[in-house]
Every structure is written in structure tokens, then in C-alpha cells.
Design a protein that fits this description.
Elements (H helix, E strand, L loop, with lengths): L5 H12 L3 H13 L7 H13 L3 H11 L4 H17 L1
Length: 89
């Protein structure tokens, strides 16, 4: 197994901070698969939700797929986190 490139994750976060929808989507993929971070469907859903808000069709599809493995309360937390992100960025 190769070494994790944390600089890539950090770059995606910096790009997300500046509103890059591709970075939102990439972070959703990172968290949904656990590549370089602990797998976290709530975080993944949040990032896919943000990408979907900006019109990324793939994010809508991936968000729906991981939502199938989440409880309603987990989805609610993820949605609240996305709203908080939008309000503060």
C-alpha cells in the first residue's frame, strides 16, 4: 500500500475554502472511501451535498448512494454541517 499524500487532502480543503466545487466533490470521495482519512459517511455526505448545490450531477448520485447506508439522523447531521459550511464560507 502506498503512502497517503496528505498534501492532496490539504489542497482539496484549501480549494474548498475558496468555493471550488470540484474540491467539494473530491473531499466527498476521500471521506466516502476512507482514502487518507477515516471513512466517514457524514463528512462525505456533507461534501457531496455542497458539490451538488453547485450543480455537480455526480455528487448528487454519490450522495444518494451513501445515504442508503446512513441513518436519518446521520443525514440530518450532514445536512446541518453543509448549511453551516455555507453560512461561514
Amino acid at each position: 500500500m502506498g503512502q497517503v499524500d496528505f498534501s492532496y487532502i490539504e489542497d482539496r480543503i484549501v480549494q474548498a475554502e475558496s468555493g471550488a466545487k470540484e474540491a467539494f466533490y473530491d473531499l466527498g470521495l476521500i471521506y466516502s472511501t476512507g482514502q487518507g482519512v477515516d471513512q466517514n459517511y457524514i463528512e462525505a455526505h456533507k461534501w457531496f451535498n455542497l458539490a451538488a448545490i453547485y450543480g455537480m450531477k455526480n455528487a448528487q448520485i454519490d450522495r444518494a448512494e451513501i445515504a442508503e447506508d446512513m441513518s436519518n439522523s446521520e443525514i440530518s447531521v450532514a445536512q446541518r454541517m453543509a448549511r453551516e459550511w455555507m453560512a461561514t464560507h
